[in-house]
Write a structure and sequence with these properties.
Largest sheet: 9 strands, antiparallel
Structural class: alpha+beta
Distance between the termini: 34 Å
Strand order of the largest sheet: 1-8-9-10-11-18-15-14-13
Oligomer: single chain
Shape: globular
């Protein structure tokens, strides 16, 4: 680990899947895992290429039931390039003696370099160096340069360069009993002596896919076609001289029928690859594109946290780049890095968009537009469930229907169990939160007054309709939901799934209703009248929203906020005993189910639930929310609540340590860094035990960067000002970054132990108001200011 490079020495089959995920290269349109080009999918390796928004639906037989699943499709593998000497066996790290093996991921340039030295069956040494990239300037191109050197001998070698359409979705072990062949009608061909093509389509979504590969060498080579078994292949025979390096450049183009302004994906790919310039020219334009990206996300964090944050940012940019602004896609929870969660869109955008808002607001707008395009589907789901408004799905894919599986497999017990996670209706609040945060950060009033207000109204309408008044309490209650914790999906001994009055759900629902009322109040008269006519919104409904937003029930027990009604009556778990017995108990739910027990019986959480409120809202805003609901949330109550759940959380999600680190930075600063450090290590150390190899955790990666950007600075974009309330940690007390705020690009913020510096670049924009400790300072373009931090 260095400032800008991520390096692996040696070859370790047990670590290969993890390395493949962390060495994925992408550009927001598509991404390819960092698999060895000479290897196929097996128990060690998993080459995978995924295009954003490319899904397909298959039906499987599971536990005697027909189950339908939609997956992000593993597209034809463009990587294959292998070498063999006169011995006739293709060289690979699993079949031949490997004298040396290194991988280096260059974050600054967006390239992956791999070097290997093989010894063949006759004792001859062959050095292979490869550099690959997925082009950041032209999102349809990828390149692989292979340099081969004979050491101590001369003779002939053969190289196979291929496009492999015989692939399936087999990258997640627990899914392997399910249908996995998404590609059909695979066709291959040759268009020129150096160019082959492959075309196919997805079996049910009927997305046509076209790839073309041009392979050239810097020395004379005898070439012949080797198309077979859904592979478009070229075989090149050439001579090596001792010590002389031969270079083979493979340029690949990828198109799908989702792309605008093309007639046929295969023809578009062939045209693009034939017109593509040479490797040096493409590498230069790729590096320029990355240089411009890094300029927009300037981040200066000292010590060991800096390179990790840069790696996290690198993978965020590869999944959601400026190219994403042109696509109809959401935020895939595991990036474009693997097949876990089937490539679905959950609530993880809640942890991603706050960062993007302050750097690439056009990408945030596109991701919110993905949700708006599926608003009608969410309204149909609500109607089908007998509800009003919009009921967004917990898992979304291509068209916005609910993609959450009805059964899930417990790998410990081998049993398929009912999955009730679709009751996590708080995903609607996450969407509303992101609409509001995006508009506050960008100043995009046009979006708020059109697509934004339409989503807010329908999400508010859903919460109002779901809330039922209970006279004995004098409060509204929301029953039958699952909260962010996810461990608890029912009361013990009761068959009905769902829980009542999840505190996070109710408080965020109240926030949605209040903010929607604010947005409607600020909406100009004519668009407000049009909206009310179009949606049937009237004064009686608005009065109910006001009433519900002030009277939703929030449960308490033992002087703390209850995770849900009845939580305090659950049994206490023997945490020490389970840790002694199992060691890692992150997935406590699976452990208990395998024992014939259920986590529903215990005060035990998978991840932050109530404490998520401290992640979303500043202390000031959270206190205001509780006062609106008739409760006084002082520091003492909040600290007791933090302590209560801190002792009862197993951190079975990478998001949990992030949220705890964020919250503890203000509640218990001395304990915060342990959780921040765990959040930083979540994927690079694969703390969840093999999950990173199935795809990185994008929300956790983006959240760690946002922890530096907003969490520790207390940065809020609220009320037309940048509000700051810093809490420097001793382990991260000085750092700097740049943001984009309401048209100002490159606004510099630098935090130290006792000062905050803000510099606004020269432009013709209005000054920026900075609010710190009740004091407002206006900083004009071309000026800077240094503010003294209040004592804590």
């Amino acid at each position: 680990m260095r400032d800008w490079t991520w390096e692996y020495e040696g070859y370790d089959p047990a670590q290969e899947r993890l390395r493949e995920s962390l060495c994925t290269l992408g550009n927001g349109y598509f991404a390819t895992r960092g698999a060895a080009p000479e290897c196929v999918a097996d128990a060690v390796h998993y080459p995978g290429t995924y295009a954003a928004g490319c899904y397909n639906r298959l039906t499987s037989d599971v536990a005697g039931r027909r189950v339908e699943n939609e997956d992000m499709v593993n597209l034809p593998n463009w990587l294959p390039l292998r070498v063999r000497t006169a011995s006739g066996k293709w060289l690979s790290p699993d079949t031949h003696k490997l004298l040396d093996h290194r991988q280096s991921l260059d974050l600054r340039a967006g390239t992956l370099e791999r070097t290997a030295r093989y010894e063949d069956e006759n004792g001859r040494c062959l050095a292979v160096r490869q550099v690959r990239l997925v082009h950041m300037a032209d999102p349809h191109l990828a390149l692989l340069r292979t340099q081969v050197t004979a050491e101590g001998w001369s003779g002939e070698i053969e190289i196979e360069s291929a496009l492999d359409g015989a692939v399936a979705n087999t990258g997640v072990e627990r899914y392997r009993s399910l249908a996995s062949r998404h590609l059909t009608h695979v066709e291959t061909g040759t268009s020129a002596p150096d160019t082959v093509w492959l075309g196919c389509r997805t079996s049910t979504s009927d997305i046509r896919v076209g790839l073309a590969a041009r392979t050239v060498t810097d020395t004379a080579a005898e070439t012949r076609d080797g198309h077979r078994n859904a592979r478009a292949a070229q075989l090149l025979r050439l001579s090596l001289t001792d010590g002389r390096t031969v270079t083979v450049d493979k340029t690949v183009a990828l198109h799908t029928s989702h792309d605008p302004a093309i007639k046929d994906p295969v023809h578009a790919a062939l045209d693009r690859v034939c017109r593509a310039p040479d490797f040096a020219t493409l590498l230069a334009s790729h590096r320029t594109a990355w240089r411009q990206l890094w300029r927009n996300v300037e981040l200066d964090v000292p010590n060991s946290a800096g390179p990790v944050l840069r790696l996290h940012l690198f993978h965020l940019l590869q999944t959601l780049s400026p190219h994403t602004a042109d696509l109809d896609v959401g935020v895939p929870a595991r990036g474009l890095h693997g097949e876990a969660y089937r490539g679905h869109v959950f609530w993880d955008e809640l942890f991603v968009l706050p960062y993007l808002n302050l750097h690439f607001p056009e990408v945030s707008r596109a991701l919110l537009t993905y949700r708006h395009r599926r608003l009608e589907q969410a309204r149909r789901a609500a109607r089908d469930a007998g509800r009003t408004g919009a009921m967004y799905p917990w898992q979304s894919g291509s068209d916005g229907r609910e993609e959450t599986q009805q059964l899930h497999l417990n790998p410990r017990s081998g049993r398929w169990l009912p999955d009730h996670s679709r009751l996590q209706h708080h995903v609607g609040s996450a969407i509303a939160y992101n609409v509001w945060q995006y508009c506050e950060a960008s100043g995009d009033v046009e979006f708020l007054h059109t697509k934004g207000i339409e989503m807010l109204v329908q999400i508010a309408r859903f919460w109002s309709g779901l809330a039922a008044y209970e006279g004995t309490l004098g409060r509204y209650r929301i029953r039958g939901v699952v909260g962010p914790d996810e461990y608890h999906d029912a009361y013990p001994g009761i068959d009905r799934p769902g829980l009542d009055d999840n505190a996070y759900t109710n408080v965020t629902a109240a926030w949605v209703l209040a903010r929607t009322l604010d947005a409607l109040h600020e909406l100009p008269e004519l668009p407000r009248r049009d909206l009310c006519e179009r949606t049937g919104l009237d004064s009686a409904e608005l009065e109910r929203w006001e009433d519900v937003s002030r009277n939703l029930y929030v449960p308490f027990h033992s002087g703390v906020i209850s995770q849900f009604e009845g939580y305090g009556a659950l049994e206490e778990l023997d945490w020490a005993g389970y840790r002694a017995r199992y060691g890692d108990i992150r997935r406590l739910d699976r452990i208990l189910e395998a024992e014939g027990d259920t986590v529903n019986r215990y005060q035990a959480s998978k991840q932050a639930d109530v404490l998520m409120l401290g992640y979303l809202f500043s202390p000031t805003e959270l206190g205001s929310l509780f006062r609106r609901l008739g409760h006084e949330l002082d520091d003492t109550l909040w600290r007791r609540t933090v302590d209560h759940y801190l002792r009862r959380t197993s951190h079975g999600s990478t998001l949990s340590s992030l949220v705890h680190g964020w919250v503890l930075a203000r509640a218990r600063r001395a304990e915060a860094w342990a959780y921040v450090h765990e959040a930083l290590d979540g994927d690079i150390a694969d703390l969840q035990g093999g999950t990173t190899g199935e795809g990185i955790h994008l929300g956790a990666m983006a959240g760690t960067i946002d922890l530096v950007q907003r969490g520790l600075t207390g940065l809020e974009t609220r009320g037309g000002a940048l509000r700051l309330d810093p809490v420097p940690l001793p382990e991260l007390s000085e750092y700097g970054f740049a943001i984009r705020y309401r048209g100002h690009r490159g606004v510099q913020l630098r935090l130290s132990a006792d000062q905050l510096m803000v510099a606004v670049p020269t432009s013709d924009r209005d000054p920026i108001d900075i609010v710190l400790a009740g004091r407002t300072v206006s900083v004009a373009p071309g000026e800077s200011c240094t503010l003294t931090l209040p004592d804590r």
